């Protein structure tokens, strides 16, 4: 692979190729303009032209697929970056787009499982986990593997481990006292069963024993810091105990796991409003509204935050919007109207 | 592992052809007369372009380093659509692997040869009426070409080809993410 620029034999006078006396001056090798032009256009061999055309055709086919592949590749990388930043709503969109182009891609699917879990979509995480059952987790991604193990464990912790006890509890579900007593004794016997502890916390909350509900869900959070269901249970208990500052802190902790969690953003807004942090509450709920602008619960909280920030027109506009929705809960609409007309105070 | 140059060139012959074509292309762009082009042969050198001495020394610089520009660009263009499905999603077709082979072959022949470096040195360093800035530029370029030639004993040309054809597309995707 070389180039040579030696001067070959030249005619004594004129162009070395055609002997024309009108050769171009200033060149070491004498050639007339026409000969130089012709020689500079040295023909490319036909075989090479045909090979180039063949490669060109393959390339055109590939380039035709490129936009989809490029979008999927960029989407996957962006999704991973967003997941690292704990922005799981945006990350989920990216992984879903990647899976549309490459439905069998394990990495995108496993990341989507994690995103679904943190977006409180346990059903989707569960079904995807079943789909991904036979797939090998990339061994080079230890963080992904560790997170999947935790989520897998937490998803299995959504049901009481002892199926016999679970069946008995289902049978006596209507009898609250018997249900609580059975669950209580089971939790004592099987303190490792976090689903049972969470269920017991819920039962105590139903019985308005918020202190025990708080204590039990706090134990679960201590044992499994990523078990999000227990956070919501405890947040509900703290709200009913009027321990708003602790609730605010816990909601922030929950939000740090997924900074785009709509439910966590709404819960944080509710604690901020109760602590008279009205401006912050409006900022928080606007983050949720940016992610889920048409969600009825988000619209409810936005109307409320607008009301406490003296944006009554906006609050009324959202109430009208909710009223016109066939899927909106009439009880919630009535409650919202009472809140924004100050008939009932949301903060107490 | 020692593989004789012509045999390695045989396996990666598309790169040799593009390398010579790049010299030829720049000769054509600058109107430099070409006397002979050998796109590939099983001898040393495996390919060559014979052209007249240039009038403008800048033209010589671009004719000499043309393969670095052209081979790199073509290798990237060919490998890019195939590298994403193969390396990011492990879902390449036979066409993708063909394009990656072509990209690698073309990319690894991007480095100008020591013969190209000699012509550059003779024309630009020893040449008359060559501006000083061009002489200064020539020194590192020729130095890099010789370093590349030494590096090819340690598969530097292969590493470069892999970098362009396999690594760069993924880096570009990461950049846009």
Automatic annotation (TrEMBL), chain B:
Protein keywords: Membrane, Transmembrane, Transmembrane helix
Annotated transmembrane regions = 68-87, 94-112, 132-151, 158-176
Top-level lineage group = Bacteria
In Swiss-Prot or TrEMBL terms, this protein is called: DUF3267 domain-containing protein
Name the species this protein comes from.
Answer: Chitinophaga pinensis
């Amino acid at each position: 692979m070389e180039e040579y620029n030696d001067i070959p034999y030249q005619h004594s006078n004129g162009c070395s190729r055609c002997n024309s006396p009108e050769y171009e001056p200033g060149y070491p090798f004498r050639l007339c303009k026409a000969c130089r032009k012709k020689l500079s256009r040295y023909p490319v061999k036909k075989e090479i032209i045909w090979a180039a055309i063949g490669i060109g055709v393959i390339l055109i086919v590939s380039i035709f697929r490129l936009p989809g592949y490029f979008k999927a590749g960029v989407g996957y990388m962006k999704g991973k970056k967003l997941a690292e930043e704990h922005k799981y709503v945006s990350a989920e969109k990216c992984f879903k787009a990647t899976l549309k182009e490459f439905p069998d891609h394990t990495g995108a699917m496993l990341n989507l499982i994690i995103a679904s879990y943190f977006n409180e979509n346990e059903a989707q995480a569960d079904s995807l986990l079943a789909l991904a059952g036979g797939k090998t987790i990339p061994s080079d991604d230890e963080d992904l593997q560790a997170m999947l193990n935790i989520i897998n464990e937490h998803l299995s912790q959504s049901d009481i481990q002892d199926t016999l006890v679970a069946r008995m509890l289902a049978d006596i579900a209507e009898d609250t006292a018997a249900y609580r007593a059975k669950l209580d004794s089971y939790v004592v016997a099987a303190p490792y069963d976090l689903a049972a502890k969470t269920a017991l916390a819920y039962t105590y909350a139903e019985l308005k024993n918020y202190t025990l509900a708080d204590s039990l869900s706090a134990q679960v959070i201590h044992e499994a810091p990523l078990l999000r269901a227990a956070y919501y249970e405890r947040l509900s208990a703290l709200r009913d105990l009027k321990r708003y500052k602790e609730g605010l802190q816990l909601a922030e902790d929950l939000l740090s796991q997924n900074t785009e969690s709509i439910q966590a953003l709404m819960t944080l807004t509710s604690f901020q409003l109760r602590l008279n942090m009205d401006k912050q509450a409006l900022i928080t709920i606007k983050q949720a509204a940016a992610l889920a602008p048409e969600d009825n619960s988000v619209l409810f909280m936005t109307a409320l935050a607008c009301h406490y920030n003296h944006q009554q027109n906006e609050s009324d506009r959202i109430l009208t919007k909710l009223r016109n929705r066939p899927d909106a809960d009439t009880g919630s609409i009535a409650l919202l109207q009472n809140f924004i007309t100050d008939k009932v105070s949301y903060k107490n | 592992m020692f593989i004789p140059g012509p045999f390695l060139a045989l396996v990666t012959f598309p790169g040799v052809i593009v390398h010579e074509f790049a010299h030829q292309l720049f000769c054509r762009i600058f109107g430099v007369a070409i006397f002979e082009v050998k796109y590939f042969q099983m001898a040393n050198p495996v390919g060559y372009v014979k052209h007249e001495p240039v009038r403008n020394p800048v033209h010589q610089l671009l004719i000499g380093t043309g393969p670095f520009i052209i081979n790199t660009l073509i290798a990237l263009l060919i490998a890019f659509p195939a590298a994403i499905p193969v390396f990011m999603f492990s879902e390449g077709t036979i066409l993708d692997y063909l394009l990656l082979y072509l990209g690698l072959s073309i990319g690894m022949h991007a480095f100008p040869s020591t013969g190209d470096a000699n012509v550059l040195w003779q024309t630009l360093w020893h040449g008359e009426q060559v501006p000083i800035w061009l002489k200064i530029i020539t020194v590192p370029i020729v130095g890099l070409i010789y370093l590349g030639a030494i590096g090819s004993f340690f598969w530097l040309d292969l590493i470069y080809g892999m970098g362009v054809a396999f690594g760069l597309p993924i880096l570009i995707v990461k950049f846009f993410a």
